[in-house]
Amino acid sequence: MPLEATEYRGCTEFQNWSRSRLLRRIRRRSSSSVALTSVPQVSLTDSETNRDVLLVVLLRGGMDGLTTVVPYGDPNLYSPTLRPDLAVPPPGDPDGAIDLDGFFGLAPAMAPLLPAYASGQLAVVHATGSPDPTRSHFDAFSYLEYGIPLQPLDVYSGWLARHLQIVPPTGNGLLRAAAISGQVPKTLADAPATLPIADPSSFAFPGSPVTSSLRQAVIEAAHEFTIEPLASAAKGTIDTIAILQGIDFLNYAPSGGATYPGSAFGEAVKSVAAMVKADIGLEAATVELGSWDTHNQQGVQAGDMANLMADLSTTLAALHIDMQDRMDRFAVVVMSEFGRRADQNGSQGTDHGHGNCMLVMGGHIAGGQVIADWNSGELLHPDLLYQGDSLQVTIDYRDIIAEIVQNRLDNADLATVFPNYTPTFRGITN
Fold it and tell me: Across residues 344-367, what is the average pLDDT?
């Protein structure tokens, strides 16, 4: 779903933030046309690795985890003072949640993910998120992506970038990470061999195809004796273009009969699958799905949020089917900057909150479970709400990611990935 289709629901900060991101993308594209110049074809060699390829899905706007994965077993959810109109009913009721474990259930629009959950390759982590108290979209995502909540913002590399900085490449190192967007998100800020690729199917040498080879040769020759690091950067860019041009994104055929939705998000995730299966040495990727800032007319059963959940769930379900032959070395983390308040507002929506839920999928993810510390089943009790209105964060999101980084990305240097934090592993991997 295009961002502009539902952005009117969001707060002023989210609207301005989205517009500023768009302007930065335009500036980035105008300047990158010079950098993305020429390239000869390269031959890749297969390399064995025990590390997973990691896909990070960023849900921008503050996804409502109390709707996405419903804690129907908490009786406080159905209090008339919380969500009399927005709470998804318990399983068995009309439009009720789809039971997962006797306490939590998927929203009806998330039903496509049930097979992945039942297969043991999809897990939910609830009452999770960043411990930072901010309710600013911009600040919350900055802390989340840099991996340094509750600390001064004096680190400007993303947690995933720091991981890539301290481990060797699994392939030739030309394209270690890709952001399927117009700009590199903070998660990958300062990552080596990383590019923003808004549309991989059209990522090509700019200008007329008729003179493309000649112009590439001229530019390559011009940079051959240029000083470093300019010479290597030019050569790497040239080779990366050649690698991506060698992938037939437009005619990519998913495995297992998987069908991705035709949305921008579905196409982006399908492109990641194509890159992984092309064995180009990709180690990580980020994809974004925005417009979760549901301040009014949230539409949990039919409407804006229901549509977003359907886009998210059908895409991830297709990815789960498509990647079965690679699932042993593939992992997906889905998260948002914060959740929504436990109580609905006067506009049939929810305002900025705190705790949320994460989705984690992969061949070595301990799926088929909801990992949560729910305080004896009543975390939504008025006396336990964070600042009196929101779900608490009882599991730090870094606990989940750190376990994946160490056990699935083969990187035990967690002090570098998450400075000044000692994670508690929660059993998300097997």
Answer: 98
Q: Does residue 176 contact residue 240 with C-beta atoms inside 8 Å?
A: no
H or E, element range at 195: strand 194-196
Question: What is the arithmetic mean of pLDDT over 283-311?
Answer: 98
Burial status of residue 303 (CB atoms within 10 A of its CB: 0-12, 13-18, 19 or more): middle
128: containing domain: 3-417
What type of residue is 268? A
Q: In the chain, pLDDT over 90 holds for what percent of residues?
A: 77
Rg of the chain taking only CA atoms, in angstroms: 22
Q: Is there a domain that residue 312 lies in? A: yes
Q: Is residue 425 part of a domain?
A: no
Q: Is residue 143 situated within a structural domain? A: yes
Please give the model's pTM, rounded to 2 decimal places: 0.88
The length of the chain, given as a count of residues: 430
Q: 3-state SS string over 122-162?
A: EEEEEEEECCCCCCCHHHHHHHHHHCCCCCCCCCCCCHHHH
- Give the pLDDT band of residue 234 (cuts 50, 70, 90): confident
Task: Report the run of H or E that residue 222 belongs to, with start and end.
Answer: helix 212-223
Q: Provide the pLDDT confidence category of residue 39 given band limits of 50, 70 and 90.
A: very low
Please give the tally of structural domains in the chain: 1
HSE-up of 146 (CA within 13 Å, CB side)? 19
pLDDT at 274: 98
- The three-state secondary structure class of 172 is coil
Do 176 and 213 contact (CB within 8 A), yes or no? no
Which of 87, 150, 93, 75 has its CA nearest to residue 341? 87
Read off the pLDDT of residues 367-378 as tens digits, 9 standing for 90 and up: 999 999 999 999
- Do the domain assignments include residue 424? no
Residue 287 main-chain phi, psi, to 5 deg: -135, 145
Three-class DSSP category at 59: strand
